[in-house]
């Protein structure tokens, strides 16, 4: 069963998908680059609607979202396919798969909040691959979730068209957007996409008032040039401000980049300090052991507010109204779910 897709127009006998800047043109029977949108019977359909191919319960810290309902669990789902072609993809078994080759859970949008509640999750995430390729399902499922008091989160590369973004993002409570590098060369050669639309998405989302955290997977020899990283930190400070958390995470060899070494911890620690030097207040490191890079400290009085051990929250001193108990400064983020069940950093698969 397919589902009618939005974001397309006809060009003669062919259909152009406008969900992302790739603008795939499809003759009858053809799929787009992401392989879950198809020209079928003269219209564009989604093969992914209501059929996630991966469903798991994660600590929300794993998304990573560190200023949004810290310590809670999140029902996470993704489909096959992707609109990017990252050579370093860490979910390539999903992103490079065809949806009909993978098992899927039949999960209507209205059933999403009940599943989240059953698993003790405070929120639901569209993640693993990129929700840009199934906006119709994200919109309907996020609406159902929020109506039932379950928050909705998107984890994305932000390579999305203006129209799909304007419809989908306001349905979400929080976003983690990858800023995969800071050069067009990197985006073009290693992700088969472009940098500028991603920067526009980040700026648009923050200015729209959405809760946004950014992630950069630092890959030795590809996007770890100190000058390039400094340009990125400067851009973040100037364009979206110092309160947007930035996660600098370590690469491990995967997919087509098997010959690249793991990111040395010193690279991330140096980058973390440089980013803070540009005034960014919440810079974290991931996939390495780094106590400083895993603590949220108050920018006002330096009190350690949230301490983490990998994906588990070890201590959370932020008050329920989001303020620091030491100096009453408001900490940016969403911290009001203290009564929700905590994850303890556990993860398990439902599919
Ligand atoms: S969403 Fe998929 S089909 Fe549509 S333009 Fe992007 S890659 Fe192509």
UniProtKB/TrEMBL annotation:
SUPFAM superfamilies associated with the record: Radical SAM enzymes
Listed NCBIfam families: AmmeMemoSam_rS (TIGR04337)
Organism in which the protein naturally occurs: Nannocystis pusilla
Domain Radical SAM core, chain residue ranges per copy: 67-281
List of residues binding [4Fe-4S] cluster: 82, 86, 89
Record SMART domains: Elp3
MF annotations from Gene Ontology: 4 iron, 4 sulfur cluster binding; catalytic activity; metal ion binding
Stated name of the protein: AmmeMemoRadiSam system radical SAM enzyme
Keywords, in A-Z order: 4Fe-4S, Iron, Iron-sulfur, Metal-binding, S-adenosyl-L-methionine
InterPro entries from the UniProt entry: Aldolase_TIM (IPR013785), AmmeMemoSam_rS (IPR027596), Elp3/MiaA/NifB-like_rSAM (IPR006638), Organic_radical-activating (IPR034457), Pyrv-formate_lyase-activ_prd (IPR016431), rSAM (IPR007197), rSAM_sf (IPR058240)
Cofactor note: Binds 1 [4Fe-4S] cluster. The cluster is coordinated with 3 cysteines and an exchangeable S-adenosyl-L-methionine.
Name of the gene this protein is made from: amrS
Cofactor(s) needed by this chain: [4Fe-4S] cluster
